[in-house]
Structure formats: structure tokens, C-alpha cells
């Protein structure tokens, strides 16, 4: 349980969670890390904690460097309990520590812990504390991704402790970006952004601009999840700028479910039409795919087609869940439509189309619906529907070139 040096006198003292597979509904198939950092300067500083239940590992790493009782400066960048879950244990041991936190963070922390005996110092953007040779400068980042969130910058090391921004849910035995497969790393960044930070694209753009205005030199970014960006921190900043601007590949993801395979047969016809227009497409059956994986694939491509059977005059429950989840993520700069089948009377496609419209996406009317098992003429109509939708995706995508 050794600490890992990331800069001179700056150490990772976090936890690798190999086993977690569900993170408040987000499937974490790669596991995750809870990163936090100890600085051994004139004053000992601890930046963030780890998820409750893992405090023993954190303290063991800290003891490799110093006695936890010697911690004088504590920084809470974010109060979500995967990062703040052990502050009660830390403050109980480090009785002389001052905890630096935003005003909203303080208000939130009071709901989790009895803080009446804690020495808490509220900070704002630009505030700093000198701990010896190093300086901790605080940058508020409200709604990235909670109201309390902030980052901590150490100018002497050009190091940005970025809390949840620039992270990934990825358990790795190595901690740095240059030691992992780059294709997997990029996919993990997109996965994390799509499922957690998608609603905050405009705020991300504004905050990146604010950081640029502050003139911060950054040669390492250490997020609270995943690998630390020591070789190419500019890469993840560029990825975030692209994602915040709605960047997507010119293609279609078809997200569908089926009861008696009629909608599945329609999916094949629609897919043939898309492919024959020369457009790339992926197909996701919801009951076979984690929700978070479907959201990631949605985010990667400009076009979305939803395939749903009708059940009780509305769309199929798995499709309804997916679209409700997507609506909460407030997607932008995507084009969508729906197709499906029904037995007695329709309604599923209409329901799906109304939900897509409620998200303020570019919606291609009308949807396409078939009664019972598709026949040859239905296949032809579905093929044409897919072909025309691909054309619409190409036209819409050109607006972002």
C-alpha cells in the first residue's frame, strides 16, 4: 500500500477499486479509482479523501510518508462521497487541520457530517494558501459537476488537481496516461464525459475559458478518477473542448428493443438503407447492453434512431428508460427519429417521437411504424426510411464542419 510520487513532495494516496460495477446507475465495467493526494511540505496537506469503506488503505499509504496526525491543511474539492466519504475520519485524527472548501461545499458537508468541531475555511476563486515551498490556489467550478465543486492548482508544480473533470472510471495498476493504451484511454474519457458531464457542455466551455484567462501553466492534470495526465494534459483539454462544442462522428447509432422480433426485422431494413448511403452505423439492443454503454455510443455519433415496439399504446419500457435517462443528460447537436412495430394499435413510435422532441433535438418527421410482422413492402419502406435518414444526418452534420 505504498504512496506514488507524482511531483516532488506530491504523492497519490488513493484507492484502486477493481470490483465496482455500478456507480449510481452508471455501469463501470473497468472499475474505477478514487484519487487523492498528499503534499509533504512545511505544512502537510491532504487534497480530498476516498470513498467511505476504503479509509484504511488511504491511511496506510499516508503512513508511508508521515503520521496522519501531522496533516495541517485539508482541501475538499468536491463533497460527493466517493471523494469526501472519509473526512470525518481524517478530521478526527488530524485535529489541528484546517479544511478549505467552497461555501456550497461547506453547506453540503454539514449535511453529511457533524462539523461543529472542525476548523473550516471557505474559499473562492483566486484564494490561496501557502504551505511552505508550494502554494495551493483554488478555482471554483460550480456544476462541474456539483454546485460545490472546485479545483486546486499548484503553480510551483504546474499541477492541476481537477476533481471529477478530465477523469475516467478505469481501475489501473499504473497511474499515468503514458503507461496505458491510448485508444482505451480516449474511449474511457468519452464514456465518462457522456454519462456524467454531458449536461454541462456550455459550463465546461466557459470554465475552460476562465482557466485560460487565469494564465495557468499546466503540465500535469490529476483528476479524482482514473489516470493522471503527465505526458499530454493538453490532449484531454482538447477532447473536452471538442465534446463541449458538440463534436460527433458522421454516423448513426440505432438503439432498439423488440418483443417478437418484428422491430428487430425492421432494424435490419433501416440499417441496410443507412449503409447503402455510405454512412457508418452501429446497432444496440438495449436488453443486451448497459445503459451507460448505449449513452456513450449515442454521444459518439451525430444521428440517433430509436426502435421500439408498442406496449399498452406507449413505447417499450426499456426504450422509455433510455430516453428518460438521455433527456436528463440534456443532449445537444444531434438529429433523431424513431421506428417500430405494433400489434393491435400504434402509439409506441409517436410516444418516442414526442420524447425526442421534448429534448429539443433535430427530429426527422415522420417516424416509421409497421403493424405486426414486416412484409416485403415493409422492408422496402424501412430501407427507404433508413436511406433518407442517413441523408438528413449528412446535411445536419455539415452544419458543424
Question: Explain this structure to me?
Answer:
- Helix content is 36%, strand content 25%.
- It starts with a strand and ends with a helix.
- The protein has two domains: 4-244, Ribonuclease Z/Hydroxyacylglutathione hydrolase-like (Metallo-beta-lactamase, Chain A, 4-Layer Sandwich), CATH 3.60.15.10; 252-391, Flavodoxin domain (Rossmann fold, 3-Layer(aba) Sandwich), CATH 3.40.50.360.
- α5 crosses α7 (233-244), α6 (201-214) crosses α7 and α10 runs parallel beside α11 (348-358).
- β8, α1 and β9 (71-75) form a beta-alpha-beta unit.
- The longest helix is centred in the C-terminal third of the chain and has 22 residues, at 376-397.
- By secondary structure, the chain is α/β, with parallel strands linked by helices.
- The strands form five sheets. A seven-stranded mixed sheet has the order 1-2-7-8-9-10-11.
Helices and strands, with pairings:
Blueprint: E1 4-7, E2 10-12, E3 15-17, E4 22-23, E5 26-27, E6 32-34, E7 37-40, E8 44-47, H1 55-63, E9 71-75, H2 81-84, H3 87-93, E10 98-101, H4 103-112, E11 119-122, E12 128-130, E13 135-140, E14 150-154, E15 159-161, H5 182-197, H6 201-214, E16 220-222, H7 233-244, E17 249-256, H8 262-276, E18 280-285, H9 291-300, E19 301-311, E20 314-315, H10 317-329, E21 335-342, H11 348-358, E22 362-363, E23 368-371, H12 376-397
Parallel strand pairs: 8-9, 9-10, 10-11, 15-16, 17-18, 17-19, 19-21, 21-22, 21-23
Antiparallel strand pairs: 1-2, 2-7, 3-6, 4-5, 7-8, 12-13, 13-14, 14-15, 19-20
Q: Summarize model confidence as the mean pLDDT.
A: 94
CATH topology of the largest domain: Metallo-beta-lactamase, Chain A
Name the CATH superfamily classification of the largest domain: Ribonuclease Z/Hydroxyacylglutathione hydrolase-like
CATH architecture of the largest domain: 4-Layer Sandwich
Principal-axis shape: elongated
Main sheet, how many strands, which sense, barrel? 7 strands, mixed
Low-confidence stretches: none
What spatial order of strands do you see in the largest sheet? 1-2-7-8-9-10-11
Query: How many domain regions?
Result: 2
End-to-end CA span: 49 Å
Amino acid at each position: 500500500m505504498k504512496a506514488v510520487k507524482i511531483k516532488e513532495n506530491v504523492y497519490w494516496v488513493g484507492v484502486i477499486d477493481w470490483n465496482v460495477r455500478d456507480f449510481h446507475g452508471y455501469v463501470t465495467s473497468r472499475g474505477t479509482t478514487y484519487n487523492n493526494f498528499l503534499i509533504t511540505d512545511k505544512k502537510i496537506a491532504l487534497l480530498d479523501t476516498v470513498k467511505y469503506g476504503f479509509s484504511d488503505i488511504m491511511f496506510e499509504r499516508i503512513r508511508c510518508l508521515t503520521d496522519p496526525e501531522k496533516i495541517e491543511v485539508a482541501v475538499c474539492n468536491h463533497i460527493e462521497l466517493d471523494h469526501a466519504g472519509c473526512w470525518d475520519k481524517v478530521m478526527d485524527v488530524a485535529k489541528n487541520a484546517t479544511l478549505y472548501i467552497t461555501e456550497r461545499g461547506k453547506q453540503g458537508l454539514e449535511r453529511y457530517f457533524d462539523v461543529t468541531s472542525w476548523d473550516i475555511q471557505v474559499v473562492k476563486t483566486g484564494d490561496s494558501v501557502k504551505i511552505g515551498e508550494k502554494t495551493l490556489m483554488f478555482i471554483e467550478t460550480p456544476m462541474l459537476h456539483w454546485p460545490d465543486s472546485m479545483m486546486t492548482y499548484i503553480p510551483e508544480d504546474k499541477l492541476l488537481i481537477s476533481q471529477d473533470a478530465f477523469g475516467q472510471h478505469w481501475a489501473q495498476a499504473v497511474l499515468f496516461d503514458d503507461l496505458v493504451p491510448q485508444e482505451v484511454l480516449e474511449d474511457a474519457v468519452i464514456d465518462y464525459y457522456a454519462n456524467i458531464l454531458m449536461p454541462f457542455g456550455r459550463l465546461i466551455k466557459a470554465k475552460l475559458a476562465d482557466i485560460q484567462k487565469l494564465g495557468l501553466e499546466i503540465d500535469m492534470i490529476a483528476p479524482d478518477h482514473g489516470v493522471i495526465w503527465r505526458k499530454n494534459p493538453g490532449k484531454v483539454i482538447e477532447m473536452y473542448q471538442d465534446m463541449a462544442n458538440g463534436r460527433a462522428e458522421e454516423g448513426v447509432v440505432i438503439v432498439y428493443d423488440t418483443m417478437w422480433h418484428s422491430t428487430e426485422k425492421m432494424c435490419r431494413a433501416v440499417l441496410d438503407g443507412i449503409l447503402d448511403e455510405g454512412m457508418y452505423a452501429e446497432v444496440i439492443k438495449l436488453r443486451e447492453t448497459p445503459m451507460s454503454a448505449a449513452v456513450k455510443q449515442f454521444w459518439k455519433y451525430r444521428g440517433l434512431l430509436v426502435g421500439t415496439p408498442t406496449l399498452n399504446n406507449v413505447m417499450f419500457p426499456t426504450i422509455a428508460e433510455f430516453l428518460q435517462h438521455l433527456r436528463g443528460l440534456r443532449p445537444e447537436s444531434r438529429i433523431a427519429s424513431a421506428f417500430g412495430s405494433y400489434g393491435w394499435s400504434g402509439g409506441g413510435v409517436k410516444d418516442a417521437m414526442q420524447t425526442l422532441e421534448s429534448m429539443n433535438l433535430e427530429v426527422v418527421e415522420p417516424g416509421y411504424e409497421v403493424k405486426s410482422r414486416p412484409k416485403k413492402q415493409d422492408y422496402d419502406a424501412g430501407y427507404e426510411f433508413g436511406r433518407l435518414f442517413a441523408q438528413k444526418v449528412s446535411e445536419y452534420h455539415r452544419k458543424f464542419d
